[in-house]
Amino acid sequence: MKKIVIISPFQFLLQRGIERFVYSLANSLCEKYSIQIVIYVWGGKENNNWSEWHPNINIRHVPLIKYYQRPFSALFYNLWLGVDKPDAVFVNFLYHGEEYLIKRYPCYCILHSPASQVPNRYAYIENIYKKFKNIRFVAVSDMVKREALAYIDSSKILVIKNGVDVNKFRCEALIRPSDETLKIVTFSALEERKGMQFVLKGIAELRNSDIRYDIYGDGPYKFELKQSIRDLSLTQNVFLHSSTKDVKEILCKSDIFCLLSKGEAFPLSPLEAMSCGLPIVTSNHPPYDEFIDEKTGFMISPKSTNQFVSAISKLTSASLRKKMGSAGRKLVEQQYSWSIVSEQYYEMILDESLANKMN
């Protein structure tokens, strides 16, 4: 039985795309291949209660201290690696203690962010990654790989795109019970680059009292969004909610998923919405063009109110929403289910193991 260590410091402290990725990948690999996985996390006050972990997954907690957490964590990582003796180590960062790892284990660093968003982090990676005896990088989209090439040698980067739990994110019917209200939904951190302010302007332009827009998330842009909702007289149409774990249940009661963001790596929320049979309205920025086309939704210029109005007006048609939603569900099943994605990670590990035996 192969053994993999995954280092995910914030697994129980935060619940972002990175932590959801670790949870889904670990469970999928264990379920499909009976791999043994050990996850190294930081301790402290746990804010996230994940659903059940596979019995083959073991969690090790690094004590949380006030100062020098990175080198302190590295001491535990290297001690545990000597005990666990994994076939591979997966890391999501190279600057939270992972840079001090023992170099003899095959290491795979998952690139979850495009370099344009975090150039300083990529510059740091560029300065240290050659110290590793055996390191590869996994970009979660073609766009992430393109931007990483300024810092990391191309031969070191593979592309494995993110996945979706298609069994969990599945609605009983692709035509939802509907009153006369068209329900648009966004799940996102509340940041200016996420583009929700442009959705508000578009809804105001539509002047349609039968549209409801629900935003789920938290973040520094919340005050500005509240102000815009008031200024645009949308208090009866737009509703801000805190982040929620009930994503699937909300998607199955919604009609359209919208995210006009810039700077994404390969966002999970649109894939989850597609898996639930929703048509998608996104920005025309990469990497949306890697999984959205005219069959599954609309890619529009975020600042173009006319393009937003046109897309939503077309999607008032229940038959078009059903057609696009069905196409999106089919695409996710064929290319982005966790069963398919975890297979790519497993084959990557096998290839590396074979290469090591030949050397």
Annotation keywords:
359 residues; alpha/beta; Rossmann fold; 2 domains; seven-stranded parallel sheet; six-stranded parallel sheet; 11 helices; 13 strands; 37% helix; globular
Describe what you observe in this structure:
There is one protein chain. The protein is α/β, with parallel strands linked by helices and 359 residues long. It folds into two domains: 183 residues, 3-Layer(aba) Sandwich (Rossmann fold), CATH 3.40.50.2000; 154 residues, Rossmann fold (3-Layer(aba) Sandwich). It has eleven helices and 13 strands. The strands form two sheets. A seven-stranded parallel beta sheet has the order 3-2-1-4-5-6-7, sandwiched between helices. α1 crosses α11 and α5 crosses α9. The radius of gyration is 21 Å and the shape is globular. The model has no long low-confidence stretch (mean pLDDT 92).
Briefly characterize the structure.
The chain has 359 residues and is of the alpha/beta class. The protein is built from eleven helices and 13 strands.
